[in-house]
Write a structure and sequence with these properties.
Helix content: 25-40%
Bound molecules: N-(iminomethyl)-L-glutamic acid, fe (iii) ion
Oligomer: single chain
Distance between the termini: 35 Å
CATH class of the largest domain: Alpha Beta
Strand order of the largest sheet: 5-6-7-8-9-10-11-12
Length: 409
């Protein structure tokens, strides 16, 4: 028998491995052996080969380990803030009213266009740091506050720069079709000509985006227009995602499924037909309780239908200055349970295993042999506590690609 050799061995740890569809797939009194940047061994500590050798051993003191968290839907790179719109909404204005009056996304667009790359990095980094401090090891960041090639590119480059400067893996998504820029007012098809002829080709050639997203809604782009952008993205080899059925049923879920989208996100107004189409296509449902909460929505996403048809549910922060100024993915676990009635197991799967799938990533999201050694350790007595608590930060350590990033014990 060959001797097991590890670079790092975590012991006296309980593991919520999330490695199968049934809940936490927990291993109590576990050990986790890491070689290089991968998990090389995981199981009950009592089964660890006695001859196992390790360069470094960390006694986790009975803490819980989960996969590093994955925030699969954010608009984290932007300039300015929209606190005044929060006040307007408190006085009765709706998100759509504010958008029609030239506020909303347009106001962030103005601020983001004029910000330098350095200013965008400086404003975005603290937001990223907050998410990382709570165990996030992979995050998706969308563009969508430029609506011209230079600014969209600037946002995506800032996201790539944050990846180089911070301890996190960043996936980027081009969301050029988020809103209509002022120079194309009343000419949305002409804007999409520009997106399809210029933006998508140059973004694809520069490899600055990993996917393409569209906001399909009455206040944004129609299903026919969305179809056009998706066809162009696919021609350039980019997978697609969709802001679908957030404020009205645009049959966005069906459209996402038709293009084998990685995910359809929001889904408050999606019908059972849409859910079936997603199940058939393998499209992940990304639910965003932060936006639902902020906009005081009352219509729930079709949770029962998603369960019944076996559509995997991911949960994300939707971090953005308008509908979800949220800097805690852990808080989204609580909101997913409280507002959407997910179980704590489903919620945790939503920010690990299913979030990885929503980004098309097969190498992370569970604690199992061969996966990236991206692990968060928590000061909790059971994994339910992650969803149960509101506020506070129980993340005690983060290991990313096999390296201990931070440890507070
Ligand atoms: O995911 N739905 C559209 N886009 C964002 C909001 C962007 C904004 O208001 O700045 C969302 O909710
Ligand atoms: Fe969003």
């Amino acid at each position: 028998m060959t001797t097991a050799r590890f670079d790092l061995l975590l012991d006296d740890v309980h593991a919520a491995t999330m490695s199968d569809a049934s809940g936490y797939a927990a291993i109590r009194d576990a050990a986790i052996g890491i070689r290089g940047d991968r998990i090389a061994w995981i199981g009950p500590a009592s089964e660890l080969p006695r001859t196992a050798l390790t360069t470094r051993r960390v006694d986790c003191g009975g803490r819980w380990a989960t996969p590093g968290l994955i925030d699969c839907h954010t608009h984290l790179v932007y300039a300015g803030n929209r606190a005044e719109e929060f006040e307007q909404r408190l006085q009765g204005a709706s998100y759509a009213d504010i958008a029609r009056a030239g506020g909303g996304i347009q106001s962030t667009l103005r601020a983001t266009r004029t910000a330098t790359q350095d200013a965008l990095v400086a404003q975005s980094k603290p937001r990223l740091a907050a998410l990382i401090s709570e165990g996030v090891t992979t995050i998706e960041i969308k563009s969508g506050y430029g609506q011209d090639t230079a600014t969209e590119l600037k946002q995506l480059k800032v996201a790539r720069r944050l990846a180089a400067e911070c301890e996190v893996d960043i996936r980027t998504t081009l969301l050029a079709a988020h809103a209509l820029p002022p120079e194309f007012a009343e000419r949305s098809d002409a804007y999409l000509d520009y997106v399809c002829r210029e933006m998508i080709p140059s973004i694809a050639a520069g490899r600055v985006a990993d996917a393409v997203d569209v906001f399909c809604e009455t206040i944004a782009f129609s299903p026919a227009q969305t179809r056009r952008v998706f066809a162009c993205a696919r021609e350039h080899g980019l997978p697609v995602k969709l802001h679908a059925d957030q404020l009205s049923d645009q049959h966005g879920a069906e459209l996402a499924a038709e293009f084998q989208a990685l995910s359809a996100d929001h889904l408050e107004h999606t019908s059972e037909r849409g859910v079936k189409a997603m199940a058939h296509a393998g499209t992940i449902a990304v639910l965003l309780p932060g936006g639902f909460y902020t906009l005081r929505e009352s219509r729930l996403p079709p949770i029962e239908a998603l369960r019944a048809h076996g559509v995997p549910i991911a949960i994300a922060s939707d971090c953005n200055p308008g509908t979800s100024p949220v800097l805690s993915l852990v808080m989204m676990l609580n909101m997913a349970c409280t507002l959407f009635r997910l179980t704590p197991e489903e919620a945790l799967a939503g920010v690990t295993r299913h979030a990885a799938r929503a980004l098309g990533l097969a190498d992370r999201g569970t604690l199992s042999i061969g996966q990236r050694a991206d692990i968060a350790l928590w000061d909790i007595d059971s994994p339910v506590e992650l969803a149960y608590r509101v506020g506070g930060n129980s993340c005690a350590a983060v290991i990313r690609l096999g390296a201990v990033q931070r440890m507070s014990f």
